[in-house]
């Protein structure tokens, strides 16, 4: 089911808008992440969609139906929270059965539905256990099964993986994507972890201070950040930024209008020149390798920046000057308001030679 928010605003009595008049559409059958730092308004948006919080103004639609004034029960949503919120004294079977009993589903049909859901989330062997006997990952599987029991119009997941260790988090994010695809249920997944959001989402809504910074496909946030906040929040290691003196002046030459900050992602740095690349004269400051991950640090007119998996860099000695190359499309300019500037000069090869002469 498609979900639409129009001019959605939430303020508490004391003052400023926690959610500040946002508009968005979430397409049917997709998985969208609400991503942002702690306090950016992710849970507030989710709770307004669920009906747990009433917006100060604005509207929410499930398909064409305005739900803004409907209760939680009238909206038919499935919800999973960070703490599993399972009934500890009930078996897994009874936990999943609970919403079906409330809905007065007949016993026979209930039994079939429990089996279908248990298979879907891979806990068919655990049905007679109690939540306390399960691992954190298994408990979240049960919580997801229970949330899906009533075939919800939308599945809402608020940081469901935050209590799990790193390995289980990775396993469970793959599982959530699989379950979402298997059921086709429109899903909203809240996380503060950009890596998690990048892996799991059809689209990411990046939030800061109750405002949408960018709402796009994961690779678009990475490759075409709309502003400096997005450029910095997405990507690890973080994007290199240049905002001072000579380094900025050198890079500024590639732009047709004045920019305040220039950003270049560490993985865009290469020792290999190609037709669209821009040349940077640098000195290798340091080099390290941990398993498959190789990081290098460069001095560039007194500004330092990182390179990630720079091909050929292991052949270079620390302290040695060299030239590195960046595709022109990977040089991001930002204006005084930190908005992305689309004003790279067209002929970068000519420019490179004019800078050198
Ligand atoms: N009951 C409340 N009264 C006043 N402010 C609140 C209340 N609940 C949450 N907030 C504020 O709303 C902002 C957004 O909170 P929240 O949506 O929980 O953020 P997130 O889920 O992104 O961490 C925070 O600044 C938080 O302090
Ligand atoms: Mg939250």
From TrEMBL:
PROSITE patterns: ABC_TRANSPORTER_1, ABC_TRANSPORTER_2. SUPFAM superfamilies: MOP-like, P-loop containing nucleoside triphosphate hydrolases. Gene3D superfamilies: 2.40.50.100, P-loop containing nucleotide triphosphate hydrolases (3.40.50.300). Keywords: ATP-binding, Cell membrane, Membrane, Nucleotide-binding, Transport. SMART domains: AAA. One of its GO terms (molecular function) is ABC-type ferric iron transporter activity. GO terms for cellular component: ATP-binding cassette (ABC) transporter complex, substrate-binding subunit-containing. Residues 3-234 form the ABC transporter domain. CDD domains: ABC_Carb_Solutes_like (cd03259). It comes from the Bacteria. This is ABC transporter ATP-binding protein.
């Amino acid at each position: 089911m498609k979900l639409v928010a129009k001019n959605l605003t939430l303020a508490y009595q004391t003052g400023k808008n926690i959610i500040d008049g946002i508009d968005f559409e979430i397409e049917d059958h997709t998985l969208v992440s609400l991503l942002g730092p702690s306090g950016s308004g992710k849970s507030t948006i989710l709770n307004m969609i669920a009906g747990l919080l009433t917006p100060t103004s604005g509207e929410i639609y499930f398909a064409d139906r305005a739900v803004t004034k409907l209760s939680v029960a009238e909206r038919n949503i499935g919800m999973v929270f960070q703490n599993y919120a399972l009934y500890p004294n009930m078996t897994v079977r009874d936990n999943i059965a609970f919403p079906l009993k409330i809905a007065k589903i007949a016993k026979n049909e209930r039994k079939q539905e429990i089996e279908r859901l248990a298979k879907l989330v891979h806990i068919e062997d655990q049905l007679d256990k109690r939540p306390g006997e399960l691992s954190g990952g298994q408990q979240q599987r049960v919580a997801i099964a229970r949330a899906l029991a009533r075939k919800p119009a939308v599945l809402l997941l608020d940081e469901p993986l935050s209590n799990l260790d790193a390995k289980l988090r990775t396993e469970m994010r793959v599982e959530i994507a699989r379950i979402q695809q298997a059921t086709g249920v429109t899903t909203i997944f809240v996380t503060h972890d950009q890596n998690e959001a990048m892996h799991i989402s059809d689209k990411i809504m990046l939030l800061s201070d109750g405002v949408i910074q960018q709402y796009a496909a994961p690779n678009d946030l990475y490759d075409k950040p709309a502003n400096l906040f997005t450029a910095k929040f997405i990507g690890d290691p973080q994007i290199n930024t240049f905002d001072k003196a000579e380094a900025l002046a050198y890079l500024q030459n590639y732009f047709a209008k004045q920019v305040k900050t220039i950003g270049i992602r560490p993985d865009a740095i290469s020792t290999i020149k190609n037709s669209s690349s821009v040349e940077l004269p640098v000195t290798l400051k340091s080099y390290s390798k941990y398993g498959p991950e190789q990081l290098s640090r460069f001095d560039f007119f007194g500004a330092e920046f990182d390179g990630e998996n720079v091909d050929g860099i292991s052949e270079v000695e620390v302290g040695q000057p060299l030239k590195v190359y960046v595709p022109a499309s990977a040089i991001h300019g930002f204006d005084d308001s930190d908005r992305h500037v689309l004003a790279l000069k067209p002929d970068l090869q000519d420019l490179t030679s004019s800078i050198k002469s």
